[in-house]
């Protein structure tokens, strides 16, 4: 360990030499760095050597020891002062104590006593050195962490977590100059940031964007501070006066174009309203965040100023009842393109109306709610339409553009359309099978009709007739006639029953009408059919 430096001051050369020879300086952890024979000479040496300990006599020419101690207390406040004198007077001791002298030794000075004093001083100096080293370590650590502390300060400032009355004091603590006057906050987002696929890549991209703005921002008279804030890069701009806002908007637009050329990134900048002083940066940041959210509505704009987007509009956009009916009809019974055209028209309304974000979100929720209700009322599983983890909570800000929002809505609407189509197909098939089964069991009933079977199936005759024809390719009457004729032909082939009896067994009360229908169906009368080898199976 480095030895502590000692300066010995006494006007008696013999005493100086005796002390120099009799003390084991190195063994005690000291080095005798210099000697002086008066206070003036000692003061000059002290300025050069910066001793840790000064041993001085009191009674000396030109400048006595007490005056030297007084001067040294200002020059070397950490130095240990030891005075010795041949005058055993209380006044000297009192003055020495008043100057924070560590030890007062009476002459003649003996080696054991002085060694004991030096040993005690060594312990004090060691403790103080350790404390200084600890403080130095803390100071270095503090300086190393200062950038992070400043970043945290700015983040808390934008979050509104620093009370205004503590703002100046905390800024000074981190050596931050927050001048009064007009400030603005902008949030810069990348088109690829925050997708959750690669958090590390997002972090590097944010650092790159931050460095880019720090290097290329060139608005004269405006000071820029950058902060990594949530998933964006926050720009804190000291405008000076509010009339510089337009120039700031122009500069941000220039930087967005430059970033696309140099970094290959499409940037979106949300700019909040200017505020009167750093105490209001929280509200400016909120405005910037709200402006940034509008990027989903603005396909071609890169710098979005909240003052332009939300001047004081109160008009809104609503999904009217006729819109709901049109959507229901398209999803239930319309063509695929009809569904797509409706969804596009809804998104176009938002695009053309240039609504506030809140109003746009409300309209989006109305369309989404209409789709949810259609799924629920028609028994379609929500997971089949919206995915297995759908909770109903979808925000317009979850999308990067109106185009992406349109794709999402159209995909869900078409899933619902397909689900209802499958449901209709399944339901129609079951209905037709039930009808066929009823016909097979009741074809011999001459009173069997569309009304009879519709009463059984609880369907309207018009709907049933359309459904039956669409699913089977033949009308109910044609199907019933075909079934009756097939059974009549079997009876004619396999039995000797009279024609009128066969007519009764196949649902015809009038034998003549039965014969008319049979001949029309097979091209032969019942009697000739029975005797014709081609049909009778007896040839």
Set down the secondary structure blueprint:
Blueprint: E1 4-9, H1 13-22, H2 25-28, E2 30-36, H3 39-49, E3 53-57, H4 65-75, E4 80-85, H5 90-98, E5 103-106, H6 111-158, H7 164-173, E6 182-190, H8 199-216, E7 223-229, E8 232-240, H9 245-262, E9 267-271, E10 275-276, H10 281-293, E11 303-305, H11 306-309, H12 321-333, H13 336-353, H14 357-377, H15 382-386, H16 402-442, H17 450-457, H18 461-472, H19 476-494, H20 499-505, H21 511-522, H22 526-531, H23 533-536
Parallel strand pairs: 1-2, 1-3, 3-4, 4-5, 9-11
Antiparallel strand pairs: 6-8, 6-9, 6-10, 7-8
Provide an overview of this structure:
The strands form two sheets. Strands 6, 7, 8, 9, 10 and 11 form a six-stranded mixed sheet that branches. By secondary structure, the protein is α/β, with parallel strands linked by helices. Strand 4 (80-85), helix 5 (90-98) and strand 5 (103-106) form a beta-alpha-beta unit. The protein has helices at residues 13-22, 25-28, 39-49, 65-75, 90-98, 111-158, 164-173, 199-216, 245-262, 281-293, 306-309, 321-333, 336-353, 357-377, 382-386, 402-442, 450-457, 461-472, 476-494, 499-505, 511-522, 526-531, 533-536; strands at 4-9, 30-36, 53-57, 80-85, 103-106, 182-190, 223-229, 232-240, 267-271, 275-276, 303-305. The chain starts with a strand and ends with a helix. The mean pLDDT is 85. It contains 23 helices and eleven strands.
């Amino acid at each position: 360990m480095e030895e502590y430096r000692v300066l010995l001051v006494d006007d008696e050369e013999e005493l100086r030499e005796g002390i120099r020879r009799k003390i084991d300086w190195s063994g005690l952890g000291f080095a005798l760095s210099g000697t002086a024979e008066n206070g003036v000479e000692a003061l000059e040496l002290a300025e050069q050597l910066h001793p840790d300990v000064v041993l001085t006599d009191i009674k000396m020419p030109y400048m006595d020891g007490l005056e030297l101690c007084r001067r040294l207390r200002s020059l070397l406040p950490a130095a240990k002062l030891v005075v010795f004198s041949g005058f055993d007077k209380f006044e000297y001791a009192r003055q020495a104590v008043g100057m924070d002298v560590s030890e007062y030794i009476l002459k003649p000075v003996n080696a054991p006593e002085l060694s004991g004093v030096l040993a005690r001083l060594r312990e004090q100096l060691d403790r103080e050195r350790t404390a200084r080293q600890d403080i130095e370590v803390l100071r270095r650590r503090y300086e190393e962490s200062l950038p992070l502390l400043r970043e945290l300060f700015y983040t808390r400032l934008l979050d509104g977590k620093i009370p205004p009355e503590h703002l100046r004091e905390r800024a000074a603590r981190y050596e931050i100059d927050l001048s009064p006057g007009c400030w603005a906050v902008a949030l810069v987002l990348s088109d690829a940031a925050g997708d959750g696929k690669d958090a590390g890549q997002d972090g590097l991209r944010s650092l790159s964007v931050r460095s880019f703005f720090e290097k290329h921002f060139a608005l004269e008279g405006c000071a820029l501070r950058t902060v990594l804030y949530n998933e964006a890069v926050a720009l804190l701009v000291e405008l000076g006066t509010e009339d510089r806002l337009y120039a700031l908007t122009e500069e941000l637009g220039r930087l967005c174009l430059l970033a696309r050329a140099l970094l290959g990134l499409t940037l979106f900048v949300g700019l909040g309203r200017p505020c009167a002083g750093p105490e209001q940066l929280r509200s400016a940041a909120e405005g910037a965040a709200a402006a940034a959210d509008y990027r989903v509505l603005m396909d071609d704009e890169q710098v979005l100023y909240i003052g332009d987007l939300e001047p004081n509009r109160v008009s809104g956009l609503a999904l009217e009842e006729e819109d709901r009916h049109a959507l229901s009809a398209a999803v239930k019974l319309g063509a695929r393109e009809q569904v797509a055209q409706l969804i596009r028209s809804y998104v176009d309304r938002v695009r053309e109306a240039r609504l506030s974000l809140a109003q746009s979100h409300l309209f989006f929720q109305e369309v989404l709610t209409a789709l949810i209700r259609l799924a629920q009322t028609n028994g379609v599983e929500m997971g089949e339409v919206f995915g297995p983890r759908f909770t109903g909570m979808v925000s317009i800000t979850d999308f990067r553009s109106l185009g992406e929002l349109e794709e999402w809505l159209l995909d869900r609407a078409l899933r619902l359309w397909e689900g209802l189509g499958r449901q209709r197909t399944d339901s129609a098939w079951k209905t037709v099978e039930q009808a066929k089964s009823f016909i097979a069991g009741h074809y011999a009933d001459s009173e069997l009709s569309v009304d009879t079977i519709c009463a059984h199936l609880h369907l309207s005759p018009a709907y049933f007739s359309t459904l039956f024809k669409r699913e089977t390719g033949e009308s109910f009457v044609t199907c019933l006639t075909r079934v009756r004729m097939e059974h009549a032909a079997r009876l004619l082939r396999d039995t000797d029953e009279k024609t009128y009896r066969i007519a009764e067994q196949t649902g015809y009360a009038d034998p003549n009408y039965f014969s008319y229908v049979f001949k029309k169906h097979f091209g032969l009368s019942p009697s000739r059919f029975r005797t014709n080898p081609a049909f009778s199976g007896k040839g």
